Amino acid sequence: MAEDEEDDYMSNIFVEEPNPHKSLLCKPQKVARKHELENKRKDLNAKSRVQPRHIVEQESRTKGLATAITEDNPGFKLLAKMGYKIGEGLGAKGEGRTEPVPVDVKSGRTGLGRDSAVKEAQARRQKMQVVVKEKRAKLEKIQHKQFRERMRDRFNYKQVEHDLYKSQKVCLHLDESSDIERPKCDFYWPSIVTEDEQNEDSEDDDDDEEISPDDKLILLTEYLRTEYFYCIWCGHRFSDKNELSQECPGNTAACHDDDC
């Protein structure tokens, strides 16, 4: 009857417990092997990688400059014959240089002396720019001063023309009040005359045109002050010469300014 019984696959014979210690022991070995292969691969890549020429030269130069020459070097032997000892400075008293002259490696592609020539050219150009700037500022200052002088002259000219015309009108009024039919000088009155008078006095008009407005104003001012004791800047006719000299500041516009 035992032979006829079917096998029980759920029994302990067929179901075996897994060994946890076996799996834990296998994992560290695999990880270590993986790391070892990765490191070898990195080393091979680093060795196979070709560095640029300038980097190789720089590393070689840096290493050479940092390495002191040995005592069996021909150059060192020559220095030793001249009295040099390791650690001492150059010279008879040993106070000279103790370290080699540093090497200034030229990294640019310009020729020898090109950099210094460029710097000198830049310095000259900067100096010239400063000189030009100073001259321009000086010229602008002169031009500004000349402009102010021209404006002042233009203002003075307009002021003279205004004072002259004002004096001519006053003179016309005072002369007519004194029954004077013709001005003592043509420019004493405003230039409003008939065509006949212009034709008759054409030569005199030419002479008047030669007199500047400043001179005309001076002559007309003197006439008004002498004949009528009148001052156009005071705008008043005084009673006599004494009152005019005492009350009137002077015979020019400047004398009547507040700053005078």
From TrEMBL:
One of its GO terms (molecular function) is nucleic acid binding. Residues 71-117 form the G-patch domain. InterPro entries: DUF4187, G_patch_dom, GPATCH11. Residues 37-46 have a biased composition (Basic and acidic residues). It comes from the Eukaryota. GO terms for cellular component: kinetochore. This is G patch domain-containing protein 11. It comes from Phallusia mammillata. The gene is Gpatch11.
